[in-house]
Write a structure and sequence with these properties.
The protein has 144 residues and is α+β, with helices and mostly antiparallel strands. The protein has two domains: 1-30, no CATH class; 31-143, Immunoglobulin-like. It has helices at residues 2-13, 15-25, 34-38, and strands at 41-44, 49-55, 60-63, 68-70, 79-80, 85-89, 93-98, 101-109, 115-120, 122-124, 128-129, 133-138. The longest helix has 12 residues, at 2-13.
Length: 144
């Protein structure tokens, strides 16, 4: 019984469950951390090149033109970006944004241990815009 109670409490404290419960109860969902809201990861594409995949949480969007990727030396990479959708953003006016699952293709080979620098910015629609996020992504060993 105690384990079940602890499991239930743990689930209720989870941001994803909190958001769903808040929607059901008519409240305001918890604010997700950027890594939860956008979930970027470096993967090997079917063409043998690197790609950055995003799983953008419902109610969130990324600014398309604020995505930047650099190689291990910090040199900016050319990106093959999805077209996005036009959105009348309260902060920036008419901009292209990305929602849902998105893949940004890079023009470099997917070598084991490859790393890239990623910078992005996005918002929780109607609630807040996150500060720009900068991080390093590494291609997992099993991706090749």
């Amino acid at each position: 019984m105690r384990r079940s109670l602890l499991l239930l409490i743990g689930c209720l404290l989870s941001p994803a469950v909190n958001a769903d419960l808040a929607d059901l109860l008519g409240g305001t969902p918890a604010v997700l951390r950027p890594e939860q809201a956008f979930a970027p990861q470096l993967v090997a594409g079917a063409d043998g090149r690197l790609a950055v995949q995003f799983r953008i949480a419902p109610g969130h969007y990324l600014y398309r033109d604020r995505l930047q990727v650099t190689d291990a030396r910090g040199t900016p990479l050319r990106l093959q970006l999805p077209p996005g959708e036009l959105y009348d953003d309260p902060e920036s006016g008419s901009v292209a944004v990305l929602r849902g699952e998105q893949t940004v293709h890079l023009d470099i080979p997917a070598l084991t241990g490859a790393t890239v620098g990623l910078r992005y910015q996005g918002c929780a629609q109607g609630r807040l815009c996150y500060a720009p996020v900068s991080l390093r992504l590494r291609l997992p060993e099993q991706s090749r």
